């Protein structure tokens, strides 16, 4: 879908983060089977308003970047947080962003609702950031209480901190001090920053025990959706067929309003099914001539984008092609690679396999090809 603004998310991951313990910087330590930073960038990658995600990394961590999804821009960070932000702001200038969202890689539990609220407030006010009002009584002291602090109008800052690009870029250029966050930079430059009610679950992993708390939050939030799809196309005139995005020579073609890619259609319907959003025919009616002979990746990409808009990512898909010929085995890896490319997945998240019907039924008589598919989606 078209985005009304060019919004870039900057995820800061160049720090060392050694207080969390473990073998290395906390952002690269595992959390539920993935690097912690993977959870921190996921809400931005799938949010319909975010155009680009930038990860600012330590110069010595180039070898770790392959663990992250494709489509990310990488920028080497500076000697401190301020330098890292400035490196990112300079790197994205050619992209002409309207707004930037600056987020800590150590915050893996940002949800889509809070992210949307931050974006809306940023667009309205020019600068906004989430924060949680302090509820506890506050003391100042050493080994004993020296004084009480009025907690009225006291907040705990969170990220993402969100700004019009020109506002925060010029503020950083004029800053002559080291700040703890970008709101301080903006305020010192004379800008007002709106406070968005934050979320207690939007924690920053700092100490070893925070990993367990983050996992508890993520597991409690996660929702699973499963869908299935089934499709059939008959053989007709032709010398080539398209299956799961791969063109194969054959003694006949497949008949359909589009390119008749029966495997891709089944996977697409499985995703729509998981979302409870009908099937291909409802989104792309065969009665509409504009879809005649269309490549089926148009339909699959639409299903994938719809899943992201609804707050889900595709965990895996499994497709079984049912036919006597052509033989699928020699082409299965190419099909997996093509389907993974279209859906923005890794190849190990895509299964393509085949079976015959032992010469029984219409597939056994080589009258056509059938496909069935399953898709698992998890909430972000």
What is this structure, in a nutshell?
The chain is α/β, with parallel strands linked by helices.
Task: List its salient traits.
single chain, about 375 residues, alpha/beta, 8-stranded mixed sheet, 5-stranded mixed sheet, 11 helices, 19 strands, elongated
Order of helices and strands: EEEHEEHEHEEEEEHHEHEEEEHHHEHEHE
- Helix run count: 11
Question: Globular, elongated, flat, extended or rod-shaped: what is the shape?
Answer: elongated
Could you tell me the strand content as a percent range? 25-35%
Largest sheet: 8 strands, mixed
Which structural class is indicated by helix and strand composition? alpha/beta
**Gap from first CA to last CA:** 19 Å
Determine Rg (CA atoms, Å). 25 Å
Please mark out the parts with pLDDT under 50 across 5 or more consecutive residues, or reply none: none
Q: Could you give the count of β-strands? A: 19
Mean pLDDT: 95
- Percent of residues in helices comes to 25-40%
């Amino acid at each position: 879908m078209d985005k009304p603004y060019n919004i870039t998310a900057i995820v800061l991951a160049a720090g060392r983060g050694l207080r969390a313990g473990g073998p290395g910087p906390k952002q690269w330590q595992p959390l539920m089977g993935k690097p912690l930073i993977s959870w921190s960038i996921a809400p931005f990658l799938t949010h319909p308003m975010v155009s680009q995600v930038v990860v600012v990394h330590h110069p010595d961590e180039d070898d770790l970047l392959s663990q992250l999804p494709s489509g990310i821009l990488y920028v080497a960070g500076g000697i401190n947080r301020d330098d890292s932000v400035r490196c990112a702001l300079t790197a994205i200038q050619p992209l002409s962003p309207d707004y930037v969202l600056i987020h800590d890689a150590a915050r893996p539990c940002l949800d889509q609702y809070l992210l949307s609220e931050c974006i809306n407030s940023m667009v309205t006010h020019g600068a906004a950031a989430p924060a949680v009002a302090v509820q506890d009584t506050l003391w100042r002291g050493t080994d004993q209480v020296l004084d009480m602090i009025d907690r009225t109008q006291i907040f705990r800052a969170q990220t993402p901190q969100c700004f019009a690009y020109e506002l925060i870029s010029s503020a950083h250029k004029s800053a002559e001090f080291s700040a703890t966050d970008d709101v301080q930079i903006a305020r010192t430059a004379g800008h007002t920053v709106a406070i968005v009610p934050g979320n207690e679950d939007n924690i920053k992993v700092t100490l070893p025990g925070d990993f367990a708390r983050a996992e508890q939050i993520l597991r409690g939030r996660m929702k699973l959706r499963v869908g299935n799809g089934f499709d059939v196309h008959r053989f007709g005139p032709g010398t080539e067929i398209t299956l799961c995005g791969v063109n194969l020579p054959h003694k006949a073609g497949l008949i359909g309003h589009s390119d008749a890619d029966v495997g891709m259609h089944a996977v697409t319907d499985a995703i729509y099914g998981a979302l409870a959003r009908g099937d291909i025919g409802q989104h792309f009616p065969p009665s509409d001539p504009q879809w005649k002979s269309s490549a089926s990746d148009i339909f699959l990409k639409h299903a994938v984008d719809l899943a992201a808009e609804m707050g889900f990512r595709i965990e895996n898909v499994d497709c079984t092609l049912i036919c006597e010929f052509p033989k699928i085995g020699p082409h299965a890896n190419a099909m997996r690679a093509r389907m993974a490319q279209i859906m923005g997945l890794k190849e190990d998240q895509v299964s393509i396999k085949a079976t015959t019907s032992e010469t029984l039924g219409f597939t056994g008589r080589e009258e056509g090809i059938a496909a069935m598919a399953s898709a698992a989606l998890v909430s972000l």
